[in-house]
Amino acid sequence: MADIHRTHYARELGEHLAGKEVRIAGWIEDVRDIGKLAFVIVRDATGACQIIVTGDNVQKAVQAQRQSAVVMAGMVQKSKAKDFSVEVKVTEFTILTSAVHPLPIDPTGRVESGFDKRLDARALDLRNPKVAAIFRLRSAGLKAVREILFNEGFIEVNTPKIIGSASEGGANLFRFEYFKHKAYLAQSPQLYKEQLTLGLDRVFEIGPYFRAENSHTVRHLSEFTSIDVEAAFLDYEDVMDLVEKVVGSVVKEFNNNCKKDMELAGVKETRLPKIERLTYEQCLDELAKHEEKLQFGDDLSDAALRNLGDIHSGFYFITDWPLKLKPFYIHEKDDDPRLSKSFDLQHGYLELVSGGRRLHDPAKLRARLAEQGLNPDGFADHLKAFEWGMPPHSGWGLGFDRLMMVLTGAQNVREVVLYPRDTDRLTP
Ligand code: AMO
Predict the structure, then answer these.
(1) What span, in angstroms and rounded, lies between the C-alpha atoms of 58 and 39?
(2) Which among 260, 326, 400, 408 could disulfide-bond with 330, CB atoms 3.0 to 4.6 Å apart, if both were Cys?
(3) Is the CB of residue 360 below 6 angstroms from any atom belonging to ligand 1?
(4) Residue 402's domain spans which residues?
């Protein structure tokens, strides 16, 4: 059995290693047979390197299927190739696992494959450096989010995804049998995160949430990743500041530490100036100037948001929505109870975040549930916690897939999700 360990990744090879023995492991991308020797391009997660095989290994390399997993050992030498400063002249060349021929997609990206075919072979799609770069950026983004939230005094929590009653009301819940009960997949950690402010003060959760939305768009998924925060003794303006810090920290991480992946993924640097805050009523005025007449209380339709997106192409907040358009847990404005202490963060037409100040008075919360046609009995466990000294609190939920879509310039949210789930896709 061959030793499966490597001493170096492709990216680490350089002239400083000339004359040294190295072990390389990865996948065969190309083989060029020139008789007594063959040039093999081997790719690993960090990049590609050129290998020279001689003797018996030439036939082995020439017969090998592209994308087979290999390990090899040999000496580093200077190269005349235009793409490589060094190459490895190998004495050991072992094919560990052969790939099939033909492969369902070409992971080098030279032959373009349809998006559905790529998703059907997602694991192989990730051998395409451009695709892998998107998911490294996604990971770097989550790291930056965690760091800034820890710095702001939040702790990370995990709340149940199997729940016994609808957390936010509404019809878009997945329902299933749970032993002798009916259960649902969580749409949001809303009720839990609010309750947790009572004992943990500032919490965040990064997790998958589920919406049975029969939407066929480039921005809706049945399972999406949300970053949820909730903080005691903060008002909605405070948590809008926090949204800016969180988005800013992801942008900064990309610009400062992810240059190579941005280049591979074809992502342009984003600048993040102070994010403009427009009230809902200011939006109505702007829309009226663009021939879109909406009455106070009307929701902003897709068409209206697209118009607003044309006026404000980057990030902007829409604040102070009519109370009746917002969920039962949102707090009214003190000076105008028709309005709410709420906000959405938009990027063009796309909603990325919604949040606000929450009601903390149990009597008010019970009344709002009834007003919205929800049965307070179904929320008994939640309401109980409000009797235990619930602090005033605020928070938000940020659709991380959508943020990644915006920051990478992807046209479809599925590009930035490994195994997307939607009305038509349940596999792989
Ligand atoms: P909301 O329902 O607006 O708010 O969701 C918050 C954010 O989650 C993202 N999102 C989605 N992303 C992809 N596919 C979907 N089907 C989908 N649905 C939502 C969006 C959206 O802005 N409990 C509140 C948040 C809060 O007030 O804290 C909530 O869930 O980016």
Answers:
(1) 9
(2) 326
(3) no
(4) 125-416
Q: Are residues 93 and 239 in the same domain?
A: no
- Mapping DSSP to helix (H, G, I), strand (E, B) and coil, where does residue 377 land? helix
397 CA distance to ligand 1 middle (Å): 6
> Ligand 1 test: best mutation among 202, 226, 357, 403, most atoms within 8 Å of CB?
226
Nearest CA to ligand 1 atom 24: 397
Looking at residue 1, its pLDDT comes to 81
Where residue 164 sits, what CATH number does that domain have?
Answer: 3.30.930.10
Rounded-to-integer distance, Cα 260 and Cα 32, Å: 28
Residue 403 placed within a domain: yes
Question: What is the structure's pLDDT at 292?
Answer: 85
Domain match, 272 and 356 both: yes
Written as one letter, the residue type at 61 is A
Residue 157 within any structural domain of the chain: yes
Residue with CA at minimum distance from ligand 1 atom 12: 399
Distance between CA 71 and CA 57 in Å, rounded? 13
Report which of 94, 134, 304, 158 is spatially closest to residue 295, judged by C-alpha positions. 304
Would the CA dihedral through 82, 87, 93, 98 be positive or negative? negative
Does the CB atom of residue 352 touch ligand 1 within 6 A? yes
Q: Of all atoms in ligand 1, which is nearest to the CA of residue 213?
A: 16
CA of residue 353 to ligand 1 center, whole Å: 6
Domain count, the chain: 2
For ligand 1, whether the C-beta of 355 sits within 6 Å is yes
Q: pLDDT tens digits for 105-126?
A: 999 989 999 999 999 999 999 9
DSSP 417: -
In a domain, 369, yes or no: yes
Q: Judge if 302 and 355 occupy the same domain.
A: yes
Question: In 3-state terms, what secondary structure has residue 209?
Answer: strand
Nearest CA, atom 20, ligand 1: 399
Q: Whose CA is closest to atom 6 on ligand 1? A: 397
Dump pLDDT digits (tens) for 335-392.
999 999 999 999 999 999 999 999 999 999 999 999 999 999 889 999 999 999 999 9
pTM for the structure as a whole: 0.97
